[in-house]
Amino acid sequence: MSDILVLYYSRHGATATMAQQIAVGIEEGGCSARVRTVPNVSTTIEATESDIPESGAPYVSLDDMQQCIALAVGSPTRFGNMAAELKYFFDSTS
Q1: Which among 3, 35, 47, 58 has most CB atoms closer than 10 A?
Q2: Element (H, E) at 86
Q3: DSSP H helical segments within 8-50, as ranges?
Q4: CB-based contacts of 34, cutoff 8 Å, min separation 6
Q5: 11-20, 27-36, 85-94: lowest mean pLDDT where?
Q6: Phi, psi of 46 (to 5 degrees)
Q7: What b/e string do you get for 15-30 counting C-beta neighbours within 10 Å, with b at 16 or more?
């Protein structure tokens, strides 16, 4: 098991592009990269996100977290903090 999880949130694509470049570097270094993202967080409780994203990397699961040997995280900043979508995922893992 030598998977490195590259976990990111990207609204407009810049962080997604950076995550893909990090994955390329990981692969060139001899490990395998597992690129994952997190779903959008809705301000409306009734709204749900599809289980499979329309494009880009698949959504991260707890199994992805348990099976990786390292973690690279990417997020745009919002008022000095990571994006709410990524924070929501991390808060749900405890």
Answers
A1: 35
A2: helix 84-92
A3: 14-28
A4: 3, 4, 5, 6, 64, 67, 68
A5: 85-94
A6: -70, -20
A7: bbeebeebbeebeeee
Instruction: Let me know: does 33 contact 4? Beta carbons within 8 Å.
Output: yes
Kindly tell me if the per-residue pLDDT of 1 is higher than 60: no
Tokens of 70: 């390292």
Q: Could you give the CA distance from residue 94 to residue 86 in angstroms, rounded to a whole number? A: 14
The model carries a pTM of 0.85
Residue labelled with tokens 């709410």: 84
Q: pLDDT, tens digit, for every residue of 36-90?
A: 999 988 776 655 567 777 777 999 999 999 999 999 999 999 889 999 899 989 9
Q: Is the pLDDT of residue 22 over 70?
A: yes
Element (H, E) at 92: helix 84-92
